[in-house]
Structure formats: structure tokens, C-alpha cells
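As practice, study what follows.
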Amino acid sequence: MANKYGIYQSSSKSCVFYKQDQDGKQSTFNIFVTPKYSAEDIKKVVAFIDNEDMNQDNWSTTEISSIKDIFDAFGGWATDAPLVFEMEAHKSISDCLNSVLKKETNE
């Protein structure tokens, strides 16, 4: 049986997704945008996967060279996710990273 997937939280600054196996063990995929503190600072994206409950390696990064990196990491994490969940999650990720996406396209 496949894992159960869902969205814990989705906003313009962060997203938290979860997957749960048959034994109730959970993993979360988290992304958030750091605030911009001054004109010189840029917003950063922080992403991490918490697999502690599932006894798998955790993953995190602040060195994201492109938004594609986030979608690739998400795809690797949600390998057996239903299509409807993936579509909703991709929309949430895009909404969350909208300000960063605008900056990338303006450069």
C-alpha cells in the first residue's frame, strides 16, 4: 500500500507537506522563505526533509541554485504520491515561492 500524503500548512512564506506510512510513521517536506533584512540582502529559500520518524536520512539545504532544485527534491520525496496531491503541492510551492520566482525572472 502507498504512503498517505497531505498538506499541513501552506502560506505565502512557507509550506509543510507530510507523508505517512502504514505504521503511522511520518516524514515532512518543509520549505520557507527567509525575510529580506536590507536592500543588499536577498531572500533565501530553506528546504528540509524530516525523515526521523521513518528511520531514513534527513536532508536540508539553503544553497538552492534554482527553484527546479526544490521541485526535484520534492519529486524524490513524494515518489508514490497521488497525482492530485502532487498538483496541489506544486501549486502551494509556487505560491510560497512567488516572490523568489519573480526575482529570478527579473534577473
